[in-house]
Amino acid sequence: MTPNKNFDTTKEQQEGMFNKYALVLTSVKGIGVKTFSYLIPDEMKTLIKIGQPVLVPFGRMGLINAFVTGFTNYLPEGIRAKKISKILDTTPIFDIDYLKFLEWTADYYFCSIQNVIECAVPMKFLNGAQKELTEKLIEFKTFDNASKRQIEILEKLKEAGKTRLIDFEKSAKTTRATLNKLEALGCVEITQEQVFRNPIEIFKQQNLEPFPPLLDEQKTVYEEIEKRLGSHSSILLHGVTSSGKTEVYFKAIQKVLEQGKNVLFLAPEIALASVLTQRLARRFGTDKTAIWHSSISDGEKFDVWQKIKNNEIRILAGARSAVFAPLKNIGLIIIDEEHESAYKQTMPAPRYDARKVAQKLAELNNCPLLSGSATPDINTYYYAKNSGSLLEMKKRYNDYPMAKVRVVDMREEHHRANHGVFSRSLVSAIEKNLRDKKQTIILMNRRGFSTYTQCLACGEVIQCPKCAIPLIFHSQTQTLKCHYCEHEEPLVTQCPKCGSDALQNCGTGVQKVELIAQKLFPDCNIVRLDSDSLARKNEHIRILEDFRNGKIDILIGTQMLAKGLDNPNVTLVGVINADNGFNLPDFRSCERGFQLLTQVAGRAGRGDNPGEVYFQTYNPDFFGLETAKQQDYKSFYNTEIEAREDFDYPPFSQIIRVILSSKNQFRAERSAQEIAMRLNDIVDKRQLTEPVAVLGPNPCVIERLQEYYRFQILIKNKLGEKGRRFILSFLAQIKLPDDIKLTVDVDPIDIL
What we know:
By secondary structure, this protein is α/β, with parallel strands linked by helices. The chain is 31% helix and 23% strand.
């Protein structure tokens, strides 16, 4: 065997019968995901295909599972390839078109095809996850020769129909031995059959929900979308919060299914994807619908993958990784809440953006890409506005009024001796809401209990030992945690610098807000929803169901609350620190802050009762907060787009972020300086200083991360695809010592 860094899928390399060697992708502990060349035995030449799982010899490990990813007639000199031992399945896991799609992703995001395949096709499929799950089922046959007690059991089985043996034992309050006796008498039949592991089976219901008639504005928008079905285009549906965008999506899905095509529906996060899938299943049925994201098991992924390959799935919903599912015959791709940064994977490679990848997928399938949001990404809105692909919904569903937003100046609260987390006006509003039997949402977009722990004697702040950031106190576990490297340690009682016990947890996180709310409103049910509270599978679904059913009075959480929460009984939203998102050293921070506030404000007043929103702030005149108060996207966009143009930020350029990192601070900085100098020299020689700007190097905002010191170079590319290829071609030629890491992020979503 011999390693291959990449592989090609040109025509002459797509057929095993014309080539001597197969390029085989392996996943080996300690080595990682790599491609090697193996000799194709003569008897396999007409059978072997790209995407097939095969068995190959691999050193001392013996035989291992792998994928065929290409073919070649050439080997490096002096290398002797071993033979492929066996084709495990003649049906390929993926085909050549799918592989080309992954190759495009690897090329665009400057990573290896191995990185993309590892992300797209879980390598654990090769290690036994593909084994069929079989389960014992029991079915009623006859009452002959049964005793009185046995007849009682058989009556229950007859009523239940064919069912899982383990479930029937519990429901009938019987034992396996009793059921085995009934099988021996011929009264029942116990069989072992393959079972499809369906993570959305919990959403199954007797009758599908009907389609409500579209209102005039919805109908107008839908008719425009319908005209574009059957050809490739990008459409942005900009609709205010609670305008009824989801029903437009569902109507478009119904039409696409009637045309015999399939639908890919993306949501930004797992929790939202699960809620979305629940709604899809209730409208279109669980047999047609599947979900795909990183939290479903490998076995469930394998089953969904197989059903997709067998053309049994018509609607696939999921988070960003669902864009790589092998769904074919796609007639429509929908990206809900398209403004969300969660569509971008920041680490590890591939650092892809599902929105960009979905554009390519729509092009390959000759179908529309329909993106929707009340607060679209600035870039998306700019391109849609200038290409005639912008559709707008300006009114809330049923003409419900927008929630009234009140801005609370916390400086005045302090002047009046209120130094608490909750302003007096927000407390009064919550008390009234509770009396009126209405529900409240409280947003505090910061995890943990407090944001840092400080020694009052010497001023020392307890830092993460691996990263240049303070550790965050979590009250439930009584630990200090780093949210970047996952380092965790017990809460210290003495200062590590001076030994004093005068330690204080400072700042406010969502856990502290929850505790204060419980003291202020002791007689109501308060629940927290954030990533730290979701320990059990489907816990977020249970919490949101309880909230919708009125079992929760106050729901407190982080930004998860701002996404897709549709509860008509929510009439009050409070934002504890509305300034949070605006103050980060990133050119997108103002946009993110505006989007979060506008989205969470849109959770209030989605029914017959009007909504009220409180923004608590120390900077009430800031334009981002003022436009969020008015829920005026266009005014925000007009101001922001001018600033972007003045400083050549996207959409007026493309940013490529280059990070040099090392455990040695000096070596990381020197490497970054050398690369920036070389790139500037080439740009000067080619007279590209205007369209290609090289900024830095500078220390990253978080300079040390996971024990590595980091220095970044930001490249602004105004030459489009030509400039991207020029920059990445330069970076591909760089050779660095083993202790220096080069990270390239094309179209980064932050520069921290």
